[in-house]
Design goal:
Structural class of chain B: mainly alpha
Number of helices of chain A: 18
Strand content of chain B: under 5%
CATH topology of the largest domain in chain A: Rossmann fold
Order of helices and strands of chain A: HHHHHEEHHEHEHHEHHEEHHHHHH
Strand order of the largest sheet of chain A: 1-2-4-5-6-3-7
Structural class of chain A: alpha/beta
Radius of gyration of chain A: 26 Å
Number of strands of chain A: 7
Number of strands of chain B: 0
CATH architecture of the largest domain in chain A: 3-Layer(aba) Sandwich
Largest sheet of chain A: 7 strands, mixed
Oligomer: heterodimer
Chain lengths: ~400, ~400
Amino acid sequence: MDPLLQSLKSAVDAAPDDVPLRMHYADMLGRAGERDEAVRQAAAILQREPTHAGALAIITTGAAQPAPSAPATDADALRQLDAELADIAPPMFVDSDAEDSSTGLFDVERVGIRLADVGGMTEVKARLEAAVLAPLRNPELVKLYGKSLRGGLLLYGPPGCGKTFIARALAGEINARFISVSLADILDMYIGQSERNIHSLFEVARANAPCVVFLDEVDAIGQKRSQMRNSAARGSVNQLLTEMDGIAAANEGVYVLGATNHPWDVDVALRRPGRFDRMVLVLPPDEAARESIVRYHLRSRPIAGVDPGKLAKQTEGYSGADLAYVCESAAENALIDSARTGVVRMIGQADLEAAVRDVRPSIGPWLDTARNVAEFANEGGVYDDLLAYLRRRRK
Amino acid sequence: MTDTQAGALERVRMLCELRRFDEAAALARRSTATAPDDVDGWCLLAQALLGLDDDEEALRAAGRAVALAPDHEWPHRLRSIALTSLGRHQDALGAAIECVRCGPFAWQTHARVAGASSALKLHDQAEIAASRTLELGSTDSRAWVIAAGVAASKGDRELAARRYRRALALDPQDADAHAGLARTELKRSSPLNPSGLAAAASGLATATRADPRSLAHRRGIDAILRIFLARTAYAVCLLCVIVLRATAHSGTLAARLTPVVLLALPAAFVAHFVAHLDHDVRAHLFRTIRQGLIGVAVACEAVAVGVIVAGAFLPTTARASTVPVAILGAILSRVTLAVEFRRKVPALRQRQSRFLGMVVALAFVGAGALLIVAGTQGPNGSAATVAGVISLGIGVAVGLKFGRRR
């Protein structure tokens, strides 16, 4: 080792809490190409002063350079560094299933649910398997056929039918981190800030790859530019296009999922290849799914003699949110009854059936618009699934 | 205005643009609660409430904005729109004139005067305001659509169509312009011209594509398809009557072939209409005629036509008996269509009920008048007069019940 570095090391060992001295030592190590040791020293500084800018810069710069074992991506390098520093510095990213980590504006989380946890919806699961999971499980086949793993998937369907839940389950299935974003997280009144927010989102996702970026209500974030008078919002769409194309950086390992009730309001450019080029229709829950949903919403309530299967048969066309409301309504009836009579009673089948009679399916207005689109704007058969569903429903 | 407040209002603006009016109204309500002196907050609340068709609340919110900024045009404009929606057209015109006073160089203010004047049937005043709207907003398709609406309401369909076309040149995706042009062209075309009907249906289909959330355009398409089916049914009925009157009892070759030749008329009407339809509307028509009672009606028409054709090849004695079957099929078809239309379209049901009610009322009034006249001249005068007065009373009561504007 260089004599100067040797002497600095001795000084640091003698005065371990002298932050400027240690910083100087880390800096010298960095210049001498001793990157690992420099990062260790920077981590030690951060233990004493967590916001020390110089130490943070060394860690960031060090992480961005290729590690000796040449990990595949920057994210892998970061994780390797994380592991190396585990015993001397707090981890940069948490790999625990239960814990969430916050990265500025966006929460990066590990999800514990999988597609098997989604009741029913076999058709949707099969579509997801074909469109996303099979290529991911067979990267060599993907390579053989020259197919890219980039691109996004747009989940669309009536409100309250579990699009967000399915997106989370998909992230769990591919063991990826999950970032959920809605209009409120992106939109900012200052010119250019919304675009910066979108850029930050994708930067965080790339740093956390493999990662699923879930854009909820993508019709709001990526609305047709022809419909917009608000120029700030137009900029957001342009930025989203740029980020999805990954011009600035590689998007390998970043899977973009969008959810919308109104895919017809999404800018056409966002549906081109490489962006949201696959669409999956998420319909109101089928009978099996409805039964699961009813069971789920009644699981912690006092019930007696309830037949979820029978309820599932009676609630054709109800969304998940409608079913939640049915259970809520039945519980309210039982509660009011108990309060009136002074005798606490269980929620029974009769309460639930009365609630089913009172609560009408909420997807009617959506179906009206969907019918207009499927029958008059089904260019290139984009909405064939929807059209088939509407025909089945009419019969 | 604080940054937080400005940010909230920007979000309300965006939500209104996205037509998520319920969220916009909730956020605007919070904003007006924290900053009750902010005019923009009240205006945006009014705009969101208008989007939710809550006109009373929108009027209140716009009123608050007017009180805070009596010299701003936007609050007056929103107030005028709310008043028009509430049917208070005279007040709406007053608010619109105030709006022009505050913003004489904004085309939107003149457009509001045009709209309010048009609702009051003050066509000359509306046209002057529409012209001023176009002078100031000649590059905005909305200005042309509003001006076209004014022209259509005063009956100048030529001018209306020109203005709608101009709007479409500026913005080919303007759904209101497509729908307005389709309706105007429909009114301009002859009832016997099937291509006019087909063009109107296709125009409304384009409007539906441009704005799938609007149910009005789709209802327009359905109305045109109903008109087509009803006209076809009438044509078949007429054909059957002609066959019955002119040729049923004659055995000559000319008499046999005449019905078949005459069939070419409704067939040409149908073929011309279908050929000129937009692809999606044609598919919609075929789906429609396969459904429910409309399917039954079309089947009845087909039977009527089939019987007429078959009659050409039957002996004269048998032919005479086929004609009533054909007439029955055609009448059944029209009646089935009427029943189905009444079931599907509440507004139509209301209009038809009103019509029938007025016919019944007139019948009672007429009978009453005759009885009264007979009573004054005949031997059992008093009984007839009492019956006449009762009949007249019933007629007036029924007339009042159904004649009242709803």
